[in-house]
Structure formats: C-alpha cells, structure tokens
C-alpha cells in the first residue's frame, strides 16, 4: 500500500521539527500535526510510475512524484517557500527523496547528481534564500552515499519569476533561460533534476535541456508534488507516461 509506505516515510520526520504550529491547520504544536500527516498519506500519487503534465511537453521523459499538490500538501509547500516556514524542510525533503530514489532507479545502479531547479534572480531577491537548493541538499543527505547535490543551473538575467504566469507565458519566459554553471561537473553524469511542485513542466524541461546540452549522460526528473489535472473522461488526477 502506498499510504503505508508514505506513513513510515513521514513518521520518521516527526521528532525532528521544532514545536510551533501546524502549517496545515494552525494547531499549536508540531510543524505538521498527526491529523495533517494522515491527510498527506491520503494524497499519495496513486501510481508508482512517472507522471506527465497536460499538455505533455515535447520530449518529456516522465517525472516521479510523491504527493498530489492539494489540500494540506499544497499548504505545506507554500508555507515552506513563501511564508518562511523552513522548519518544514525535513518533511518536504523526505517526500522529495522518495521521488528521487524512484527516478534514480530508472538509470540503473550507480551514483546520481541531484540538481535543483534554479531560482530566478527575482525570486532570490524576494525570498532572500534558495529553498529548492536547501531541499535538494536535505534530500541528498537522506539518500546517503551515491547521491550528491550540485547547484548546477542558473537562470539568465531578465527572466521573470514563474509564479503567476500562465502556461504559454511560462514557456516563453523560460525559452533557453537556463545555463549550466560548471559544465565539467555535469558532463557524463547521471542527474536527477528536482523541483518542489510539477505544474506545466516548463521549468524541468528547460533545466533538462540545458543539462543534456552540457553533456549530462542522463537526466531524470523528480518532484515532491504534482499539480492534479482533472480529466473529464477518465477522472484521473493526472496521467502516467504510459497513457
Ligand atoms: Zn494540522
């Protein structure tokens, strides 16, 4: 059962966070209360395989995800990134690490370099730090030997913050917007490119393009959460790559 596995993933995070208030429901105490933890388990993606946004970006390789970006999960992700709740990093890193592990298995045995999608200069100015880099670092720590983190990508100047843009605007904004900082560090490497939430897939697609052009041997994708796309015909929240 997916929810049982996820329950054990999340349970391990329980004692590591400072008491404050639950980011899911505001109840005083743990950063994520027992009830919200249970709600998170119910948001586990129903299929273990890779997912795709709709419409599917050209050349999309599939992306491993752990939770649906809904309800408590969405509140946690937003609180971590935009409400200064960095104490949620441990819970979110566990969700991300779970997806990274599955993505890394696609490339067979051997070490992987975990590269977070870069923040735009505008987002770094607004937040004062780079939450995705923190999250990737924590996930790598959880994954243990064989995984390393590399802040391998940067966004060119003049690129807007993706938040608030529609799909077409996101694609135009990100057209060849990323570059690899040190191509030697990614050349010939197996990489898992990570983000917190998969929405249109534009950010991951652009990052993957840049890494492959810089000579990466392989780039798989992993996110902690995926935005559900309702289908009027199937009722599935999103579709797997095999669809
Ligand atoms: Zn709660």
What would you report as the Rg, rounded to the nearest angstrom?
A: 17 Å
Strand percentage, roughly? Answer: 15-25%
Structural class of the secondary elements? alpha/beta
Order of helices and strands: HEEHEEHHEHHEEHEHEHEE
Largest sheet: 5 strands, parallel
Task: Give start-end ranges of low-pLDDT stretches.
Answer: 230-243
- Give the strand order, joined by hyphens, for the main sheet: 4-10-9-5-6
Which assembly state applies to the chains in this document? single chain
* CATH topology description: Rossmann fold
| CATH architecture name | 3-Layer(aba) Sandwich
Number of strands: 11
Shape: globular
Distance between the termini: 22 Å
Bound molecules: zinc ion
Helix coverage percent of residues?
25-40%
Mean pLDDT: 86
Quickly name the level 1 CATH class. Alpha Beta
Number of helices: 9
Characterization of this structure:
- There is one protein chain.
- The protein has 243 residues and is of the alpha/beta class.
- It is built from nine helices and eleven strands.
- It has a single domain (47-240), classed as Rossmann fold (3-Layer(aba) Sandwich).
- The longest helix has 17 residues, at 89-105.
- The chain binds zinc ion.
- Zinc ion binds at residues 22, 24-25, 27, 33, 35-36.
